[in-house]
Amino acid sequence: MLNIFIAEGEGIFDLSNEPNAVVLGSAQMLAEQPEFASNSRMRDLLRLTEGRDLLKQALADRRAQGLSITIGAENPGPALSEFTLVTASYEAGDLRGVIGVMGPTRMPYDKIIGLVEHTSRLVEGLLE
Predict the structure, then answer these.
(1) What pLDDT sits at residue 90?
(2) 88 close to 68: Cβ distance less than 8 angstroms
(3) Residue 17: which CATH number?
């Protein structure tokens, strides 16, 4: 998560032109997982991260949910069925959003959940 913020730099919270923007960090670590070794699986991953519409839809429903974990087929649409989404909402005044991690279904859940919750609280603290 920290790498996402560093890589995106100053513009990560500058979403004034698009209120429902999806800001992504690098998909390189995800692409290096064995699940995406085939060319077709890699194309699916690239389509998903470049299009962003499906991710925007999946995240929009999570804004008021606090911590949310969806695994595989629990995600909306077949394009996300190979992934786990761990998200946490944040709120500061009128500003609400979701921060999270998309990864393979075999990810270390205990570490990722703690990281996402902690980062959500940090973002709230920075925005207040």
Answers:
(1) 85
(2) yes
(3) 3.30.450.40
- DSSP character string of 53-106: HHHHHHHHTTTTSSEEEEEGGGSSSGGGTTEEEEEEEEEETTEEEEEEEEEETT
Asked if 124 and 96 count as a contact pair (C-beta separation under 8 A), the reply is no
Q: Is 97 exposed, middle or buried (0-12, 13-18, 19+ CB in 10 A)?
A: buried
Number of domains in the chain: 1
* Full-model pTM: 0.73
User: What percent of the chain shows pLDDT beyond 90?
Assistant: 12
Distance between CA 7 and CA 23 in Å, rounded?
11
